[in-house]
Specification:
Prot_kinase_dom; binds adenosine-5'-triphosphate; 6-stranded antiparallel beta sheet; alpha+beta; 409 residues
Length: 409
């Protein structure tokens, strides 16, 4: 059987014939959003792999297997990333990556980690991010690689989600560009464009006096951030982990005039169909950052702890809340809902703070914590941004049009 896009090495029959796990696939497919597109592609993978496993070509060992990104002709110049294609096919070894995933074993052959202080770019919950240099063809080009240890099933899910979402965002400047994924036995290597000349919004705020931007700067930055989030939503993806540490600001002339606002970390991202709720498997709903989680996501977490397997909510509205918390922080220099320091039950504490706030809002009070001196118009704006009821909350694209954020522009 001719295998599209695969060339270079003799087939490794063992690797190609690794058994699929129907149970895992079911779990994986049901874990995603209600997106029929996403689910269909999962099914396609299964059918294709089953064909591969039974095809004469594979059994005879005449087909080739994807092993090495360079051999697949993927490692062109980083500047030609728009033309670069994901390899067709996919290895059954890394079914969790999705239908077009490359399951290479050769990251260390293709790249070298940059040693020393400038080598470590950041650390997150899922892994560490390092600067690396490409070997061979494209030698000397620098990239950022996220190394994710694959200890748990959820780690594979997160890598698969990130890859699928970022494939959809290819070429969009509002999302960090993912070039290649290498899946090894105990770790995945996600090779991204290297973001330089800038920093995360968290670092920008930490450097500012009072950890906030002045009004004009905050308005401009907020609009750029909302534009980025709205674009991701227009592509049918919700992020579910928006926070200052996941927003990259490329340095422009000043923080308020960034040349690019780019979203990082699509490990929680889910595809959605407009008008339909996003469904999260109970376990994946537990990820994310409580201080930025929408009340309905907090409730989904709580209900998971008690009884229900799936949680459903509107992903765009959930993101809009996280954006709202981020805007609030940029504006006022602190979080709107701050759980007690080192609280043992963060989710429970957040739920309490949200219900207090919902009750206060019903009484006609304005947004909590240090809103003294804000105008009625501004207070109304924050109440719409941080409305506990998703139906009353504005989405990113609606916020973008809001007169409060466009004052003086
Ligand atoms: N492409 C990149 N170029 C430069 N630095 C990066 C890049 N990607 C990530 N970083 C740095 O690494 C940090 C961690 O990255 P990222 O948020 O993707 O990891 P994570 O493990 O998914 O984190 P989280 O705890 O948010 O889940 C970022 O805050 C940023 O400082």
């Amino acid at each position: 059987m001719p295998m599209e896009g695969i060339s270079g090495m003799e087939v490794d029959r063992k690797a190609c014939l690794v058994e699929q796990s129907p149970a895992c696939t079911l779990d994986y497919a049901s874990e995603g959003s209600e997106s029929s597109a996403g689910d269909c592609s999962e099914l396609t993978l299964e059918v294709r792999s089953a064909e591969m496993m039974t095809s004469g070509a594979m059994r005879e060992g005449t087909a080739k297997r994807p092993c090495h990104a360079a051999q697949l002709g993927l490692l062109g110049s980083p500047r030609s990333s728009r033309q670069r294609r994901w390899p067709a096919g996919g290895s059954s070894k890394a079914w969790w990556l999705g239908p077009t995933a490359l399951a290479g074993e050769c990251f260390h052959r293709d790249f070298t980690f940059v040693e020393g202080g400038e080598g470590l770019l950041g650390r997150g919950t899922f892994g560490s991010v390092h600067r690396c240099t490409q070997n061979g063809e494209g030698k000397g080009d620098d990239f950022a690689v996220k190394v994710v240890k694959l200890n748990r099933y959820e780690d594979r899910q997160a890598v698969g989600r990130e890859r699928r979402a970022l494939e959809k965002m290819k070429g969009a400047s509002c999302a960090v560009q993912l070039h290649w994924v290498y899946a090894e036995q105990h770790a995945a290597f996600l090779v991204f464009e290297l973001l330089e000349n800038g920093s995360t919004l968290e670092d920008v705020l930490n450097r500012q006096k009072g950890r906030r931007l002045d009004c004009a700067a905050a308005r401009k930055l907020c609009r750029a951030l909302l534009q980025a989030v709205a674009e991701v939503h227009d592509n049918g993806i919700c992020l579910l982990d928006i926070k200052p540490a996941n927003i990259w600001i490329s340095a422009g002339e000043s923080p308020e005039q960034p040349s690019r606002v780019c979203l990082l970390d699509f490990g929680m991202a889910h595809e959605f169909v407009p008008g339909k709720a996003v469904r999260l498997a109970a376990k994946s709903a537990l990820a994310g950052t409580p201080a930025y989680m929408a009340p309905e996501v907090i409730q989904a977490n709580l209900s998971h702890c008690t009884h229900s397997r799936f949680s459903a909510f509107n992903g765009k509205k959930a993101d809009a809340w996280s954006v709202g918390v981020t805007l609030f922080q940029t504006w006022f220099g602190h979080l709107p809902f701050q759980p007690p320091f080192k609280a043992l039950d963060l989710i429970g504490e957040m739920s309490l703070l949200h219900s207090e706030w919902a009750a206060a809002a019903k009484e006609g009070q304005s947004i909590p914590t240090a809103m003294v001196g804000v105008s009625a118009g501004e207070s109304k704006f924050w109440n719409q941004v941080l409305a506990c009821d998703p139906a009353e909350r504005l989405t990113a694209s609606e916020l973008l049009q809001h007169p409060f954020l466009n004052e003086g522009s």
